[in-house]
Specification:
Layout lengths: L9 E10 L2 E11 L4 E5 L6 H9 L6 E6 L2 E2 L11 E4 L10 H11 L4 H14 L15 H13 L5 E5 L7 H18 L2 E6 L2 H7 L2 E6 L2 E6 L1 H6 L4 H6 L4 E8 L7 E4 L6 E4 L5 E7 L5 E3 L7 E12 L4 E7 L4 E6 L1 H9 L3 E6 L4 E5 L4
Parallel strand pairs: 3-8, 3-9, 6-7, 7-8
Antiparallel strand pairs: 1-2, 1-4, 4-5, 9-10, 11-14, 12-13, 14-20, 15-19, 16-17, 16-19, 17-18
Helix pairs in contact: 2-3, 2-4, 3-4, 4-5
Bound molecules: adenosine-5'-triphosphate.
The site of adenosine-5'-triphosphate has 12 residues, from strand 2 and helix 1.
Length: about 375
């Protein structure tokens, strides 16, 4: 964080934070790679902002250590960390023009007038605000104001840019534009980005890795496809999108080879030999399930009854219950849904073996 122009590598080691008896963060250990776009994702109150504030130096951790490029910065004050920041409520200076706002961090750092002029000009160009330099924030749209905030946060080439729900006040289409712009700025600057959101689709679309928080704990960190396709637990699976959960009793993986038929009589499924034994949840994303014309022992599958259908235009959503009473949702082609419904509502659901994964039953 202290070397301008160079992306920082950050290590959080056993970070905890208590507010009185309330535990806002618990034993958080996380490496943030140089130049990575890491998103902190979790529901309201899960500790994301607290962690960002600890990274910024505005909040002191109760336990643990923080390193930037191998240097212990746990107790270093915020102004010496030189992290760029864009917060939802992090207002621009209202009496300063666009270019004065962007120039501010360079003035504080006592840069020469010529350097300030060229760097501000470059940033104005980069965030698409050419022609707006002399305007005050009040004369700009919400999206333009956030562009100024991004430019101001990046102009001094911080090692890390911290962003806390910067676009949550913007409408959906503007938000999409700003996301694309932020992704481009990340690629162009090569800076380490740490981005807070509670919007899972935003996290999956933007990040090189996603860190998922709940109740002050880091539950899983991984690439978007890793956390979506192989969630570590039930909370992560459900938080990242719709998911079907089939309870399976007494899972006993076949002993021969890596995959075999798990011996659960209710659910015909394949799972890894080293998979969970005993009771488990078989989790499958709705888009990975389909309706087969008939049952086959060579496919993972389960009998189910359609209880409701919703026409979505491009497809039909079917709500079903399995014979064991689990509720399942699938999205299928309209003609497949029509055929299933004309067939007394009984269907055979299947999914590719690698798309179903076992989670421990109960708890998180
Ligand atoms: N200064 C403080 N004093 C007491 N409690 C606090 C303080 N700051 C945060 N908390 C509590 O710590 C918990 C985590 O808050 P935090 O702001 O980190 O969550 P968050 O995941 O960022 O949520 P949101 O998405 O709503 O911003 C919350 O329950 C919050 O009330």
């Amino acid at each position: 964080m202290q070397q301008p122009g160079r992306a920082a590598e950050i290590k959080a080691n056993g970070i905890g934070k208590s507010f009185g008896s309330f535990r806002a963060l618990d034993n958080l250990t996380l490496d943030i790679g140089r130049g990575e776009f890491l998103t902190l994702l979790g529901p309201s109150g899960s500790g994301k902002t607290t962690f960002l504030m600890i990274l910024a130096g505005f909040v002191q951790p109760s336990e643990g250590k923080l390193f930037s490029d191998g240097v212990d910065i746990t107790h270093r004050p915020a102004e010496q960390r030189a992290a760029g920041m864009v917060f939802q409520g992090y207002a621009l200076f209202p009496h300063m023009s666009v270019e004065q706002n962007i120039a501010f961090p360079l003035k504080v750092r006592k840069k020469s007038a010529s350097e300030i002029k060229s760097r501000v000009g470059e940033m104005v160009e980069r965030v698409g605000l050419r022609g707006h330099e002399k305007k005050l924030p009040s004369q700009l749209s919400g999206g333009q104001q956030q562009r100024v905030a991004l430019a101001r946060a990046l102009v001094f080439e911080p090692g890390v840019l911290l962003l806390d729900e910067p676009f949550s006040a913007l409408d959906k289409s503007l938000r999409g534009q700003m996301q694309a712009e932020m992704k481009r700025l990340h690629q162009e600057t090569g800076t380490t980005f740490v981005f807070v959101t509670h919007d899972q689709s935003e996290a999956l679309a933007l990040s090189s890795r996603v860190a998922i928080f709940n109740h002050g704990k880091l539950l899983q960190v991984g690439r978007p496809d890793e956390v979506y396709d192989r969630p570590a637990n039930r909370f992560v699976a459900e938080f990242l999108g719709e998911i079907n959960m089939l309870p399976v009793k007494g899972v006993r993986p076949a002993d021969n080879g890596a995959t075999g038929l798990c011996e659960d009589r209710a659910v015909n499924m394949r799972c890894k030999a080293e998979a969970i034994k005993g009771d488990a949840i078989l989790a499958i994303r709705p888009e990975d399930m389909s309706i087969a014309p008939e049952a086959s022992v060579n496919q993972n599958g389960i009998a189910a009854t359609a209880i409701a259908s919703t026409y979505l235009g491009a497809a039909t959503k079917l709500d079903l219950t399995t014979r064991q009473g689990a509720k399942v949702t699938v999205s299928v082609p309209n003609e497949v849904a029509a055929a299933a419904l004309s067939n007394g509502n009984s269907v055979w659901l299947t999914w590719p073996a690698e798309k179903g994964f076992l989670l421990p039953d109960g708890g998180q």
